[in-house]
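TODO from last week: model tRNA-specific adenosine deaminase.
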Amino acid sequence: MNERDEYWMTQAMALAARAEQEGEVPVGALVVLNDECVGVGWNRSIGSHDATAHAEIMALRQAGLTLGNYRLLDATLYVTLEPCMMCAGAMVHSRIRRLVYGAFDAKTGAVDSVLRLLATPGLNHQVAWQQGVLAEACSTQLSAFFKRRRAEKKAAKQRAAES
């Protein structure tokens, strides 16, 4: 982990906050090439009714449009939460050089937690990865969101029961 990784992860956390403001699970991502951001994304699955609108996919799409090429050779993807299978597969197809993520995802993480998709032998492209950059801050951002969501649901149930 280095200072630039922490800087870019902080930027990804700001994108995660944007997702939360929109009522989405707070996950943010960005693609960096030559120390310049070429694509940003945050979760939009709920609002867009699109299961593929994860932060990573949105950032990869924007980077491809910015660079005029879906192959993002030498780029690094920063994301606040360990990617799922879909997003890990998209990283292989986009040919990014490196993934840096914050919090582990014990339920759907496909890099280190549930699966180790990026370590699968025989893939046509290998992605290097760095785990746990600002992990505590990223995890806290997610935990606070879900804690608040649970409290809101509980309060709504109580109001409904009282009616």
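Done. Residues 3-162 form a domain with the Cytidine Deaminase; domain 2 fold (CATH 3.40.140.10).
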